[in-house]
Amino acid sequence: MIGLTPFRSGFAMSHEFDLINQYFAPLSQVDSGEVGIGDDGAILNCPANHQLVVVTDTLIAGRHFPLNTTPYDIAWKALAVNLSDLAAMGAKPAFYSLALTLSPQENNQAWLKSFSLGLKTLSEQAQIRLIGGDTTQGPLSITVTAQGWVPSGKGLLRSGALAYADIYISGALGNGGLGLANVLNQLMPGDVGYCTDAIAKLNRPEPRLSLGQALLAQNLALAAIDISDGFLADLSHILKASNLAASIDYDALPLSEALIAWAKKQSDSLFGLNTGDDYELCFVALPDSASAIKQLADSLGLRLSRVGQTLPYTAEGERLVLRDSAGNVMPMKRLGYQHF
């Protein structure tokens, strides 16, 4: 079993330490009395009256990001998807570890310099510290385990929603999936669905940390989840955990013009609802919190859209219903991204 703190690898010993010292050790900062990179394990101070939130995600080349993605963007996304999980629980980021598997193609100074810069930029923005990890040889994959703090007993969960509450989404839906469609289909300016903002969303998602922490601090959210596998699939996790049903208003969903045009071309009205790679937050709030949520949206400069309502669940009924402008039920063949 490999400890979290020292970087260990399948590379030659001298190259291993050079790699760590040049590209990753500068990302590690610890407070007085703590131990970071360089020992058999990290020793970290724990704030009083707080609990630790731990999240992990693995990204595989060619499955979670296109093979031509830049090292900077790979690093950014690997950390961002973990930060998005912390955001969904209202956690304040604290530290993370990195397990990096490199093929000979990536094991060079140019690739590692770009990769470490992507990590550095987002970790500084999120104020999260690298405390160690593992390096080895093989097909390119990146695993990040991130930790954050929440006040004891206060973390946002999927299981706290109540019936007849409002369902909200931050930002816009489907732009990460649209970005992937842009890359895979090599869309150019003038093509239906072409959108540079969507490509940026795919490569450098922005974890909604300020939103998650504000929802927790202001006691506005009953339940929350980050939208990573598609809105319909991830909302379903809240509904199952809370034993509820929901009705969603399709016309209330925040969809970009480029996405709507692409969905129309593909004859797929659900594109954007089940594509994944959004890394926005979906949360449930009581109706009397609407005014405070609007104020929060204004203060963050972030769109927060009410898109539906939770309902009591019965075994005979549907867990999740999507309705068009006329109130008709829209068929849903696929809820989200399938990992297997």
TrEMBL record:
<feature type="binding site">
    <location>
        <position position="40"/>
    </location>
    <ligand>
        <name>Mg(2+) 3</name>
    </ligand>
</feature>
<dbReference type="InterPro" id="IPR036676">
    <property type="entry name" value="PurM-like_C_sf"/>
</dbReference>
<dbReference type="InterPro" id="IPR036921">
    <property type="entry name" value="PurM-like_N_sf"/>
</dbReference>
<feature type="binding site">
    <location>
        <position position="85"/>
    </location>
    <ligand>
        <name>Mg(2+) 4</name>
    </ligand>
</feature>
<keyword id="KW-0460">Magnesium</keyword>
<dbReference type="GO" id="GO:0009229">
    <property type="term" value="P:thiamine diphosphate biosynthetic process"/>
</dbReference>
<feature type="binding site">
    <location>
        <position position="40"/>
    </location>
    <ligand>
        <name>Mg(2+) 4</name>
    </ligand>
</feature>
<dbReference type="InterPro" id="IPR010918">
    <property type="entry name" value="PurM-like_C_dom"/>
</dbReference>
<keyword id="KW-0808">Transferase</keyword>
<keyword id="KW-0479">Metal-binding</keyword>
<dbReference type="GO" id="GO:0005524">
    <property type="term" value="F:ATP binding"/>
</dbReference>
<keyword id="KW-0547">Nucleotide-binding</keyword>
<feature type="binding site">
    <location>
        <position position="337"/>
    </location>
    <ligand>
        <name>substrate</name>
    </ligand>
</feature>
<dbReference type="InterPro" id="IPR016188">
    <property type="entry name" value="PurM-like_N"/>
</dbReference>
<comment type="pathway">
    <text>Cofactor biosynthesis; thiamine diphosphate biosynthesis; thiamine diphosphate from thiamine phosphate: step 1/1.</text>
</comment>
<dbReference type="GO" id="GO:0009228">
    <property type="term" value="P:thiamine biosynthetic process"/>
</dbReference>
<keyword id="KW-0784">Thiamine biosynthesis</keyword>
<feature type="binding site">
    <location>
        <position position="134"/>
    </location>
    <ligand>
        <name>Mg(2+) 1</name>
    </ligand>
</feature>
<keyword id="KW-0067">ATP-binding</keyword>
<keyword id="KW-0418">Kinase</keyword>
<feature type="binding site">
    <location>
        <position position="277"/>
    </location>
    <ligand>
        <name>substrate</name>
    </ligand>
</feature>
<protein>
    <recommendedName>
        <fullName>Thiamine-monophosphate kinase</fullName>
        <ecNumber>2.7.4.16</ecNumber>
    </recommendedName>
</protein>
<feature type="binding site">
    <location>
        <position position="64"/>
    </location>
    <ligand>
        <name>substrate</name>
    </ligand>
</feature>
<feature type="binding site">
    <location>
        <position position="56"/>
    </location>
    <ligand>
        <name>Mg(2+) 1</name>
    </ligand>
</feature>
<feature type="domain" description="PurM-like N-terminal">
    <location>
        <begin position="38"/>
        <end position="150"/>
    </location>
</feature>
<feature type="binding site">
    <location>
        <position position="158"/>
    </location>
    <ligand>
        <name>ATP</name>
    </ligand>
</feature>
<dbReference type="GO" id="GO:0009030">
    <property type="term" value="F:thiamine-phosphate kinase activity"/>
</dbReference>
<comment type="similarity">
    <text>Belongs to the thiamine-monophosphate kinase family.</text>
</comment>
<dbReference type="InterPro" id="IPR006283">
    <property type="entry name" value="ThiL-like"/>
</dbReference>
<feature type="binding site">
    <location>
        <position position="226"/>
    </location>
    <ligand>
        <name>Mg(2+) 3</name>
    </ligand>
</feature>
<feature type="binding site">
    <location>
        <position position="85"/>
    </location>
    <ligand>
        <name>Mg(2+) 2</name>
    </ligand>
</feature>
<feature type="binding site">
    <location>
        <begin position="133"/>
        <end position="134"/>
    </location>
    <ligand>
        <name>ATP</name>
    </ligand>
</feature>
<comment type="function">
    <text>Catalyzes the ATP-dependent phosphorylation of thiamine-monophosphate (TMP) to form thiamine-pyrophosphate (TPP), the active form of vitamin B1.</text>
</comment>
<dbReference type="Pfam" id="PF02769">
    <property type="entry name" value="AIRS_C"/>
</dbReference>
<dbReference type="Pfam" id="PF00586">
    <property type="entry name" value="AIRS"/>
</dbReference>
<feature type="binding site">
    <location>
        <position position="85"/>
    </location>
    <ligand>
        <name>Mg(2+) 3</name>
    </ligand>
</feature>
<feature type="binding site">
    <location>
        <position position="228"/>
    </location>
    <ligand>
        <name>ATP</name>
    </ligand>
</feature>
<feature type="domain" description="PurM-like C-terminal">
    <location>
        <begin position="167"/>
        <end position="310"/>
    </location>
</feature>
<feature type="binding site">
    <location>
        <position position="229"/>
    </location>
    <ligand>
        <name>Mg(2+) 5</name>
    </ligand>
</feature>
<feature type="binding site">
    <location>
        <position position="57"/>
    </location>
    <ligand>
        <name>Mg(2+) 1</name>
    </ligand>
</feature>
<dbReference type="GO" id="GO:0000287">
    <property type="term" value="F:magnesium ion binding"/>
</dbReference>
<feature type="binding site">
    <location>
        <position position="57"/>
    </location>
    <ligand>
        <name>Mg(2+) 2</name>
    </ligand>
</feature>
